[in-house]
Amino acid sequence: MKFVIAGAGAIGAYLGARMARAGLDVTLFARGPHLRAMQERGIRVRSPEGDFEAHPKLAGDLESIGPADVVFLGVKAHSLTDLAPRLAPLLGPDTAVVSTQNGVPWWYFQNHGGEFEGLRLERVDPGGVIAAAIEPRRVIGSIVYFSTAILEPGKVGHVEGNRISLGEPDGARSDRCRRIAAALIQAGLRCPITTRIRQEIWVKILGNVAFNPISALTRATLVQMARHPEVSALVRAIMSEVEAVANRLGVELPVSLDQRMAGAEKVGEHKTSMLQDLEAGRPMELEAIVGAVVELGERLGLPMTNTRAVYACVKLLGQTRRI
After folding, report:
1. Sheet of 57-59: strands edge to edge?
2. Domain range for 35
3. C-alpha–C-alpha distance, residues 108 and 106, integer Å
4. Residue 248 falls within a domain, yes or no?
5. HEC states along 268-298?
6. Taking burial as the number of CB atoms within 10 A of a residue's CB, which of 11, 234, 256, 300 is the most buried?
7. How confident is the model over 114-126, as pLDDT tens digits?
8. What's the pLDDT score for residue 188?
9. Exposure string (b/e) for 258-276, b if CB count within 10 Å is 16 or more?
10. CATH number (domain holding residue 167)
11. How far apart are CA 168 and CA 137, in angstroms?
12. Are residues 202 and 191 in the same domain?
């Protein structure tokens, strides 16, 4: 199988390095100093599981890669509106597109059924640009459960975790999911196939909607937020609001708030992706992670008092940082 990782940031570069080291046919699309560093020295990975280097194929333009069997979307959610319309050179008749973004994905309500069928969230897919570029039949959902960070161009830090879940939006255990999972397992990752990808998305959102924006405001790590009495109370209040949105959409979460808090504390002194982006001067994934849930709450008539307050503060933070 021919794999392309469109966007070789922390997650994409780590995934590509693992796949290349396993001998898989993988090409990474990247740009700027990060691309030049990888071209010169390969990808250097620093990990508690052992440091290593890998030398995947690299490209600075999508046209030179050609059609792939599988495309992993490795960019942050807010970058998809720019990337998605340019994916056409990678898409053959049967190309699968794997989303790896945090938050509510653009495809969430495609083939959803019921009263929410076809609902588009403006904060996730402004103007429907992403949905127009990627046909629903191509989409495979995924949820990434490893923590990574770009240490410097061409160098990735792997903090913890090695799991990535795959799931068809319709809940099927498809052959293409099995083939992709087998490749990722060959690369040394755990790759379960879930028949309830939407439920699993909400389990991750449950923590991200609270921890990500609060970390941007406080610069705190996961364990610091989980152990701080007042902040942990705010986290729980936001989680309760998020759980209400999920329940209204017909999703029963299989974990309790206590379990989600304990999971965050166990990760330890890790900075959330939103805090990493803030410190690096990059745009934050605020809309897909938090804004989308606020938008859903508005549509459903649910009070989102705590979530909305934190969202507003981080939105202002993003604006004032650029002034």
Report:
1. 52-54, 43-46, 155-167, 139-152, 91-99, 68-73, 2-6, 25-29, 57-59
2. 2-195
3. 6
4. yes
5. CCCCCHHHHHHHHCCCCCHHHHHHHHHHHHH
6. 11
7. 889 999 999 999 9
8. 96
9. eebbeebeebeebbbbbbb
10. 3.40.50.720
11. 10
12. no
On whether residue 258 sits in a domain, the answer given is: yes
Are the C-beta atoms of residues 165 and 200 closer than 8 Å to each other?
yes
Reduce the DSSP state of residue 31 to 3 states and report it. Answer: coil
Q: Rounded to whole angstroms, what are the CA distances from 67 to 56, 71, 104?
A: 17, 9, 27
Contacts of 121 by beta carbon, 8 Å cutoff, 6+ apart = 104, 106, 108, 109, 292, 295, 296
Tens of pLDDT, residue by residue over 49-66, are 999 999 999 999 999 999
Residue range 187-226, pLDDT digits in tens: 999 999 999 999 999 999 999 999 999 999 999 999 999 9
Do 168 and 204 lie in one domain? The reply is no
Whether 323 maps to a domain, the answer reads no
Residue 313: which CATH number? 1.10.1040.10
Clarify whether 271 is annotated catalytic.
no
234 and 187 within one domain: no
pLDDT tens for 20-33 read: 999 999 999 999 99
Same-domain status, 158 and 250: no
Whether residue 102 contacts residue 206, with contact meaning beta carbons closer than 8 Å, is answered with no
Residue with tokens 């389990």, as numbered in its chain: 203
Residue 264 backbone dihedrals phi, psi, to 5 degrees: -65, -45
Q: Are residues 191 and 218 in the same domain?
A: no
CA angle 202, 206, 212 (to 5 degrees): 125
Q: How many domains does the chain have?
A: 2
Closest CA to 262 of 238, 212, 313, 227: 227
Q: Is residue 22 part of a domain?
A: yes
Cβ atoms 262, 201 nearer than 8 A: no
Catalytic residue among 2, 76, 204, 271: 204
Q: Are residues 187 and 209 in the same domain?
A: no
Domain boundary among 195, 221, 252: 195
pLDDT digits (tens, 9 = 90+) for 254-304: 999 999 899 888 887 888 889 989 998 989 999 999 999 999 999 999 999
Pair 190, 234 in one domain: no
Query: pTM of the predicted model, to two decimals?
Result: 0.93
Instruction: Answer for the pair 53, 46: CB distance below 8 angstroms, yes or no.
Output: no
